[in-house]
């Protein structure tokens, strides 16, 4: 029996970099949580403890902060591309660089109805995310994969949601529902179909992100839902239809159950008004929706 | 040696009640986390295990949900007052009822620039809070204490913050700072000066809350800060000055440190641009600011 | 109307200090989370922004780490006493120093049945806590208050717990239970009755802590419970009876509900075997139990 | 352009089932968090909203609780196998069932040095995990994949850890370390090499789990580490060598940095005694180690 090293990667996770850009008296914040992972020829450190090919995670951290100063005001996807390029360019034994980014959003504080130029409140309604994977190919060039996304976005609709016609078996107790609350906490990612770093760097990720999230939310609001699965598919389909270069969307949607409270023991009728918001367990709906001709995902997304 | 029961209270905590109000096709959400605590003559259950005077926490929970149906569309402070009154009115051996409320906020989803009447996204920028304490007095009437507040509100300013002139001792290494990032996560509560339930129930808590938070944020934005302590006092002072019936403000402000990253080893100058957001440790500034003639706080606020 | 500064304090919170003591090849870990708060004459910084009397929280942090090197292998209570003394001794305008400590416990890793001298696994079964408050008195001497405690300790018993004979009202649906699961997550603190720093420093806090927690757990296990309130009182009473210098015990006990699952729709009988562990809401039982002649608590414990 | 449904699955997550087994007066607890996911022919619900093939997640929840009563005292791996079999046997359009389990451990409370038969304290030192994936194959039989694991296990060694000889580049500031603290929070999974459900059900998972975790811990303790990567490989290799049917081990090891505190500004020398435990960022080392002839992993483990 021989024991060998399989898939492996390492890096510095959760570098909390805050980049202030000062445009005269008007300031801007870029607030990121950046995680780097490198893969390649790392047998020596695992098997023998030789670190001759190991770029320390501390150095990766320094690089993230140094680059945040060199390259201000970037979209997270673009910052990830530049970091991945750096690690592949300078570390010949690294064959894949991955950067995951969380962007925390800030709104300007309103003073007398006007946005203040240098004071902010954090907008925790959602976290914007991005992920970049860059692979060194056999011919020495790089192949890039970029996805964008959101997480921590909680949405709810008070009408246009039903769940009927499902399988009944020995363990069924759930009644059919023709008018229920639907609520979920969206984790969504969408892939950009180009795999060329130069093309990707020119993309207007800010605009694409704005369109994608608006379309996702509007579809959720306006769609008459027969199941959370159907709503997931509809949101993703509309996002791709509007921006076909978002060639695939992956969503993970916990069904945040709101149970109607039985008030009949107290002589009260609960006409779909009072609910208890439950914590656990929860339904969990996960799917990928894609253009039938979408290019390969590479390693940008984990299989579940 | 005799061992006796001291201060005690009990109740059902974290009742997650969601109340939908349907105004024709336009729906409203009231999303609360309600905790009830009762104090009074409970020696028997502690000392002897007799529950003859115990209103079970399960019954308290039922009451919260039943009242949420009976009394729709209330401000959290008003809902707390009604619950406290109920427990004092119906449980003669209860001498104090306390209700703490967290309100989770929801914005309407925008569809083509218009707010949707029945679809929402949670606004996690802050959590609105309220606290009601109602005491049965010697003459049999009730004395009510109400505070309102916010928590989880993260704010940051990129200018007008310095920290100089402090004590230097054997353990000092901190340099003086004339231009630093100031960031904090606000937990604030403010007391309403009336102790009369009927007066309090008529108060426009929604308007008061809006004014208080706007003033707090505007003061943070516009104030030139010489210390976080000074900023705390200034915010509280302005809130009370604008609404003197908010007779006292208590704030707990962690100093969320953003440290300037030293880029000189890499030949780069960091001109107040790139920061690392630190988790722990953090400074913690806590104070009460009040009108000199503010009535007693009673048990509405814990001493630290 | 005059607006004034009320109660206030400030300090550095959550200093994560790990102290390794090397006794030849046998090593020991002291793993603490230390929070310092100072009160006194701090009007100037709040009202005018003058920091002439402010010992920066950064300096407090440095002091914590420096003292951890100077004073190895201390019990958390003793470490808190030394820190409080330092701040009162060196800062004449400080009138109260408070130190809260969390101690994370580590067990030695077992290798072939023997404890390893230099390798550890964290024991997260509970967190040991301590709290020290030191007040400068009118005559210039100090008055010290020390409490010890535990938190994050989850305990459960599968027998000897009932809940019957409680009040029934319009909102009651809970059936009586003669054999239920009782589970709680203990937060407990107990006060030492001496207020003299020199006496307290000589106390064997390690032994006292061990006795107190063993007695608490054994009482929980052996007690036949008629309510969680009764169990709380019984545990505290036994702790004080065994060690009367623990003159008062404060406990906060969430009732972690385990609901019997109704399996009758599936033709199965659930004879007290299968439960769902619920998250929210939960009952919450809080009380102080004390010797009738216990000295004043001072500011060691917040009122609720 | 056609838009289609890709990989998808759904189910009930985080069913918190507590199973008490009463062996006369001696009771046992099985405390699980069970998550079920089903995949198969679910195009209809996603594309058209027809739920004719949807077994509701509520029914899956009921099944978990009903089976916990029917099949007491099982190891988590075996419980997962039985659940997967049920869903594949009864739902002909389901082609894959996955069950993830977390087991929370309980120790008996010690009373006078003896374990109590019916009172417990939760042992949060680690969480035991298991994962079962069962695939319906082309010939109609099932192929099963089972992994076991641990998470939330924090370990630390105070000697025998160095990190030297690494790459230095423009962004390097880290000094070499010949004697550092090494600490990590282990998430580890190991695969059982049989894919046959009947064989797997007969396996002594309790014994295998105990051996695997003991070997992992002992190797961490005794190994002289030149890098966390080397330690990871060594732990996994020893686990497989001892139990070759654990054909592959996947580990995710955050490097929980403990930084030596510079006490020289205070005239103190820190001889590897006082450290600050940092939160973020942290190094993250991830790898699979396997027998060179290990069977395919199937979908038991996500690619990163």
CATH architecture descriptor name of the largest domain in chain A: Roll
Q: How do the SSEs of chain A run, as a string of H and E?
A: EEEHHHEEEEHHHEEEE
CATH topology of the largest domain in chain A: Urate Oxidase
Shape of chain A: globular
Integer tally of domains of chain A: 2
CATH superfamily placement of the largest domain in chain A:
Urate Oxidase
For the record, what CATH class of the largest domain in chain A applies? Alpha Beta
Which strand-content bin applies to the residues of chain A? 35-45%
What's the helical proportion of residues of chain A?
10-25%
State the total count of DSSP E strands of chain A: 11
* Residue windows where pLDDT falls under 50 for at least 5 positions of chain A: none
- Sheet with most strands: strand arrangement of chain A: 2-3-4-5-6-7-8-11
Gyration radius of chain A (Cα, Å) is 23 Å
Span from first to last CA of chain A? Answer: 30 Å
Hey, which two chains have the biggest interface?
A-D, 84 and 84 residues
Provide mean pLDDT of chain A, rounded: 97
Supply the helix-strand structural class of chain A: alpha+beta
* Total number of helices of chain A: 6
């Amino acid at each position: 029996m021989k024991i060998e090293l399989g898939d492996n990667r390492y890096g510095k996770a959760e570098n909390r970099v805050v980049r202030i850009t000062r445009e005269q008296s008007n300031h801007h914040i870029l607030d990121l949580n950046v995680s780097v992972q490198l893969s390649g020829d790392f047998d020596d450190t695992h098997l023998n403890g030789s670190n001759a090919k190991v770029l320390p995670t501390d150095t990766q951290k320094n690089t993230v902060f140094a680059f945040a100063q060199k390259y201000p005001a970037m979209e997270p996807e673009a910052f990830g591309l530049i970091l991945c390029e750096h690690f592949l360019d300078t570390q010949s034994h690294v064959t894949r660089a991955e950067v995951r980014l969380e962007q925390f959003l800030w709104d300007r504080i309103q003073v007398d109805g006007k946005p203040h130029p240098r004071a902010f409140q954090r907008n925790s309604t959602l976290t914007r995310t991005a992920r970049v994977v860059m692979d060194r190919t056999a011919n020495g060039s790089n192949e890039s994969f970029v996805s964008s996304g959101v997480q921590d976005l909680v949405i709810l609709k008070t009408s246009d949601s039903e769940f009927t016609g499902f399988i009944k078996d020995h363990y069924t107790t759930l009644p059919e529902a023709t008018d229920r609350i639907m609520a979920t906490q969206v984790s969504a990612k969408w892939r950009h179909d180009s795999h060329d770093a130069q093309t990707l760097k020119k993309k207007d990720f800010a605009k694409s992100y704005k369109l994608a999230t608006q379309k996702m939310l509007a579809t959720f609001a306006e769609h008459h839902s027969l199941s959370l699965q159907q709503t997931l598919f509809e949101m993703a389909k509309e996002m791709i239809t509007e921006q076909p270069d978002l060639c695939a969307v992956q969503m993970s949607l916990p069904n945040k159950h709101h149970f109607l409270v039985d008030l009949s023991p107290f002589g009260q009728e609960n006409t779909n008004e009072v609910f208890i918001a439950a914590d656990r367990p929860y339904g969990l709906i996960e799917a990928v929706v894609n253009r039938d001709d979408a290019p390969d995902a590479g390693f940008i997304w984990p299989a579940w």
